[in-house]
Description:
By secondary structure, this protein is of the alpha/beta class. It has helices at about 15-20, 25-35, 50-65, 85-95, 110-125, 200-225, 240-250, 260-265, 270-280, and strands spanning about 1-10, 15, 40, 70-75, 100-105, 130-135, 155-165, 175-180, 190, 200, 230-235, 290-295, 300-310.
Amino acid sequence: MLAGVGAHVPPSIVTNEDLASKLDTSDDWITSRTGISTRHVVEADTATSDLAVRAGAAAITSAGPDSRIDAVVLATSTPDRRCPATAPAVASALGLSGVAAFDIDAVCSGFVYGLAVAEGLIASGAAQCVLLIGADVFSSIVDPTDRTTAPLFGDGAGAVVLKAGAPDDAGALHAVELGSDGALVELITVRAGDRWFSLQGQAVYRHAVTRMTEAARNVLKKAGWSVEDVDRFVAHQANLRILRTVGTELGIDPDRVYANVSAVGNTVAASIPLALAHAHEAGRVRAGDRVLLSAFGGGATWGAAALTWPDLAN
């Protein structure tokens, strides 16, 4: 069951006008195609772990003093180092030295994959309380001179605390659906020997809509929910067109689709937990709400989850 939520974005903001002053683009061009107006980016001395620690600490505070974390799972595709994993350093910085800690990488689907991993740790008895963090610093791998990718991504971190619980508890995770197709590896990638990330935008759009919709329908079946049961749809915040199209394909009313992509851009593995935290802060998700999640990312990977929102303090 979900017991706490937290988020952190770096203070530095890059606007569309800032990008237009350096690239062959404009605010209207970016906004009309992506729905993104601003994004947060780190300073040169800030790493993924720094964002993860801040979001993780906020989630632990949200979960309350009785939450004794015994595992840390970090979803990221921009680790501090190629080796070792970043999660142990995050755990140590949070005062959690000695607990299990490891990274997973499913790019933009990382948080949904992490939910399944955390659920498995708890179900197996390997952990009773898991801190799951999604954090990425994509500004470190996106070519700042590429007008097709530079406007899309922002840096950030989001986190949740998950505990053992019963299916009817507030915050219960009811079902998770995961999938992948390695034949689509070139859609979203940093090739060996390259510095910069590359993206096949039109193909990603088609596959993202198809797979996010399919995964959402499958997870609704697993949870025993209908589309009408969903109070809030919180999908990976890739761009506004994808969010709206998936919502339409599923038959979810636009007012039940939550989006914060305009303010933060695509924050990759941080996207869904950051959106959940912002929705909670804004009162857009309330205790008892049935929440549907869906994501598509590099690999290609995709996934969806169904959960009931817990009663959290603001």
